[in-house]
Amino acid sequence: MSAPHTPVSRSDFDQVIVPTFAPASFIPVRGEGSRVWDQTGRELIDLSGGIAVNSLGHAHPKLIEALSEQAGKLWHISNIFTNEPALRLARKLVDATFADRVFFSNSGAEANEAAFKLARRYARDVYGPEKFEIISALNSFHGRTLFTVSVAGQPKYSDGFGPKIEGITHVPFNDLAALEGAISEKTCAVVLEPIQGESGILPAEQAYLEGARRLCDQYGALLIFDEVQTGVGRTGALYDYMHYGVTPDILTSAKGLGGGFPIGATLATDKVARHFSVGTHGSTFGGNPLACAVAEAVLDVVNTPQVLAGVREKHERFKARLLSIGQCYGLFSQVRGRGLLIGCVLDAAWKGRAGEVFTAAEREALMVLQAGPDVVRLAPSLLIEDADIDEGLARFERAVASLAKA
């Protein structure tokens, strides 16, 4: 019999956790589907999805089964060996996408770190050491390692840590002329999010991604799509590049891939992937049997016509109600995004108040997100039931009404 847990409260965070985050005042302790319960037993509706991570909601039976079954077999074996769940998951990802090869890691940042290193290694091997420059978009987000914050176009995340990684240029998103002006024979890669996530749920334009692909081909650069947030069904296709019909050379995936269990994946064509030879890159926990078993179960559920169509249908249900609420209170100037990655852009009178909306929603037992100070972000379970959508948005309207009165 296990020993009883030591009681903890939100105040413990301020005593023992490094203060890189400022979490909400309540502590969730249990979840089921799109509902969450806190320490007091209060029930909340979750429209945040763990920041687009809980792709199947909380405690999905197929994920519990996959994890429990693998936990009774093999937890960790190291990359001196391979394992069955990793091989099955890699095969399914390859069969479902443009990619020929997969590198497994533990997070989106690690998946992007691998992608950027691979792009530079490929360019060095094929073209020589002068071809190492990377172009990314302003206000992008690619992770929190030194390399990934340097590639991302947000100085607030990269300043204050000493010299930055050299050879990185930032251009405005959706500005093809700016990209054309920046790319050169020294460019080894162009890195883009098909939908910019952290900066406000801003989709790329069709012509922009097509132009980026053309420019990369013209200059011998690789096109990398960061689909950490948009991947694994989030936008109504398995990966968002499929909506555009524009194929990258490298794609990164994480968040929803594990449905809540940490995993990252870097997908690449064989032409590129072969430049990561034995010893050039690695990960102690990458390809962990537990993570891969869970991710395989996620993929089996998500990558079906019914679930992907359901994501697209649920988008319309959300959008119609959100636009109605926005119009009633003068709240939103735009509701954008795709599938169940939705950004509600605050109107001029509400600018900078996304944090207040977050707090007011919590008072109404609703979990939402921000994407910067001017955008309320929703990224619920891909399987969220219509009743939970309706009740969640009823609570959201009550939250907005309370702010409007104040």
What does this structure look like?
The structure is a single chain. By secondary structure, this protein is α/β, with parallel strands linked by helices. It is built from 15 helices and 17 strands. It has two domains: 10-59 and 305-405, Aspartate Aminotransferase, domain 1, CATH 3.90.1150.10; 74-302, Type I PLP-dependent aspartate aminotransferase-like (Major domain) (Aspartate Aminotransferase, domain 2, 3-Layer(aba) Sandwich). 40% of the residues lie in helices and 18% in strands. The strands form four sheets. A seven-stranded mixed beta sheet has the order 4-12-11-10-7-5-6, sandwiched between helices. Helix 4 (84-96) runs parallel beside helix 12, helix 13 (305-329) packs parallel to helix 15 and helix 14 packs across helix 15. The radius of gyration is 21 Å and the shape is globular.
